[in-house]
Each structure stands twice: as structure tokens, then as C-alpha cells.
Amino acid sequence: MSIDALFLPEVSDLALDRGCCALGRLAHWWVRPEALHRAGIDSVPPHGDLRSGEFVVLLRRNGASPVLERGLALPLRWASGPSHDPRLPAELRRLADEVLERWRDSGTASSKASLWLGEACPDLRDVRLTVESAGVILAAALRATERGFEFDPRVSATASLSERGVGTVEGLEAKLEIAGKLGLRTIFVARGQRPPPLLPNAIHLGTAPEICEVPDLGVEQQLESVVLALDAPPAKGAVEARCEWYHRHRHAAGDRTRAGEFFCDAIAHELAQAAIERMASTDPLKRGMRTMISIATGSWESTAFTAHVLRPSRILLLHDTGARGVDYKEQTLRALQRQGACHGAFASVECAPWASAGTVEFEMLLESADERLRSIAERADADACIDLTGGTTLMKLALYQVAIRRGMHCTVTDSMDHAKGRTDVRTLRVISIPHGDGW
């Protein structure tokens, strides 16, 4: 009864002391800072208490408690076993059964799973909670567990789940308050669920989390977006595991930037070193050149990879003047800057607009390319390479003709297909194109 007493409209000092003691780890999660201070407990926010292997559900408390936060959070984990943790609130056990039944009906469940409280949590079987908003995160975490993903504990969701898909919930403001207190980074909500314009001071020393609406797709795709968000990037460990993570997220809706940043931060350096060693005997590349010329592309990681292999002191980034070309320029520029900041791959990057390949004739495109590269080729200390990986076919042809005319070196970055039918970044390589060779 010591925890139940915290939910009452009036809580005595004795009841508060006993309740905080009974809550254990959850005291800092659930109890307001002023109430913790009243109980003689340090009220530092529990940012460092998000533990590996756990995920967080965001709930709303029942009752008009003066000492508990309006929103309550629970650390949970899915485990292999026939029955749920008996310490769970009854409503949460029932919701877990519904999620498991849906999972088994889909024919994709591989084993019997059970839901358990996180480490050092108290017995909550007699605590009454409203749990409908935990439906999506329970289902997504179950799928992530089945796939063997390492959880990002800073990601959660507050949304209901039914056959019709992800649904809106009540008490969003209170749940975002507790998410901020815990230091959660991303919270998924149903499409159309409007967050409060400003989170109140009840976040305490926390940081307001990013609110992400699930995509307006079928229920499977909606859940998949949360599953992938829960999939924490393996910053350390075998390069194969890091590449597999990148492959999973490279084409996921809404995850493109995250995957690209991970590639630049945690993969490109090691892959570039391997590519340099692999190509040393068969395709000796001239590295450490003065200038690399590249075209902004939607596959902007390849440009960052090429820069790391060639190690130029300067990069000239050409881009189409259309809206998509400008967007590619910004993405590629961020990747190059990130790569340089992480690994010192090059000194400077300059951007130059190029006549749009979609609105001009090839001769005009060729003339524009020649104009852009003339000053580089005519320098007394000219030492340049043209990267023909990105851009449209016409852009590549124009740059290649300029390279032949002005005696400039050309390369292309390529990779082989993965066994599962996708490009495998582990096989990335920069290939020299000898002068005079055709396409």
C-alpha cells in the first residue's frame, strides 16, 4: 500500500517517505522534485538511468496526487518465457497479451515472449494505470526484440494500436513532460496528434524531445517506422554489424539523414582504409591531390567516401540549379563537412552552381562545365581529379569530355551488390578511369 498512498489527494510526510523508498529506482522517475526534496532525497533528473536493453512506456497517472508527476514512465523489456512479470500492473499485462496475440496472428512471431519490468523496479501489481497509449511502443519493441536489435532507450511512442492503425491518445502534454525529465530524444505520436505549443517548466532540467508523427501508411509500415527508430546504431564493434545497420536504415522513410550521418561518423573511415589497401596493387590512385571536383548527388555518402580515399586539400562541389540539385548540394555539403570534422579528410569545400541538365542542351551543359573547370586546369600547380560518381548521365558525359580536353584525371566510386539484392557498402572502391577510355 505504500506506493498506492502516493496517488491519493493528500500525502503525509510518512507516506511520502515510505512511497519513495518502495519505488526505488522509479522514485526519481515518478516523484516531483519538490516532493523528493521534502523527503530528503536528491532531486537531480534521472537522465542517466536509461539502461541498455530496456524501452520506456509513457503513461498518465490516475488520481489527483500532489507528489507524483502528471505523466508516469516505466522501463520495460521483452524476454523469452511463458508468463509476464507478476509485478506488472494488471492493465499492462492485459495489453501485452493483446500485442502478443496480434503478433502471433500475423504469423511472424518466432518464440514465446513475455513482458518484464526493467532493472530495480518495484512491485506495481496493485497500481492502477491507464495504459492504452503504450500499445505502439509495446508492439514495436516486441518486433525489435525478435530481430535482435539493440534498443535506443531514448526513443519511445505514445499512441494506441488497433486494426485500423496507430491512434491518438489523451494526456500528451503530461507524457511529454515526463519524457523531457527522463531525457528522451524522440517520441512518436499518431498522425494528427498535436503536441502542446510549448512544454511547461515541469520538464525541470530536461530537454524537450522531438515529436515525430508516424507515416500515413498501413499499420505494418507505421509500426516499422518505430521499430527502426528503436534500433540503436552500433557505434562500436565489427564493421559488418555497422554496415548491416546502415543497410537497414539507408532506404527507410524518414531515416535517410540518420543513416548518412552514421555512415560518415562510424563507417566511412574504416571502409576507406580497407579500399585503399585493397586497390593498392591493382589500381594505384594518386592521393593527396590539390582539388577534387564532384557533383552533388542523392547518394551523398559516396562523395564523402571518395574524399576520404583521395584526401584532396580542396573540393569543388558542382550542383544542378534546380530545387532537387540544391537539396543534394546541402546534403552532400553536410556529409563532407561531417566527414572532414570526424576524420580530417580534407581542408575546404566550395560549392558552384551548374547549368541545369534538365533544362539546357548538352552543348550548353558542356560549355558550363568547361567554364567552371578552366581556372583549375590552367593553374601552374594544377593537380585535380574529377569524380564521376554523382549526377545525371549528361552531367557525367560533359565532365568527362572536359577531363579529356584538359588532361584531368577521372575516377568513379562503385560497389558490388549485396547477397540480399542491395548495394553493399563494404565493397566500396574508387576506380581510376584512364585518359582516352570511352564509356
- CA radius of gyration is 27 Å
* Major beta-sheet overview: 6 strands, mixed
Write down the overall mean pLDDT.
Answer: 86
Q: How are the strands of the largest sheet arranged?
A: 12-11-10-13-14-15
CATH class of the largest domain: Alpha Beta
How would the blueprint of this fold be written?
Blueprint: H1 13-23, H2 27-30, H3 33-38, E1 55-61, E2 71-80, H4 90-105, E3 113-117, E4 129-130, H5 135-146, E5 155-157, E6 160-162, E7 165-167, H6 172-182, E8 186-189, E9 210-213, H7 219-230, H8 239-250, H9 256-266, H10 268-279, E10 291-295, H11 300-310, E11 314-320, H12 323-343, E12 348-354, H13 362-377, E13 384-387, H14 393-406, E14 409-414, E15 429-433
Parallel strand pairs: 5-8, 8-9, 10-11, 10-13, 11-12, 13-14
Antiparallel strand pairs: 1-2, 1-4, 2-3, 6-7, 14-15
Helix pairs in contact: 4-5, 5-7, 8-9, 9-12, 10-11, 11-12, 13-14
Features:
single chain, 439 residues, alpha/beta, Ribosomal Protein S5, domain 2, Rossmann fold, 2 domains, six-stranded mixed β-sheet, four-stranded antiparallel β-sheet, 14 helices, 38% helix, elongated
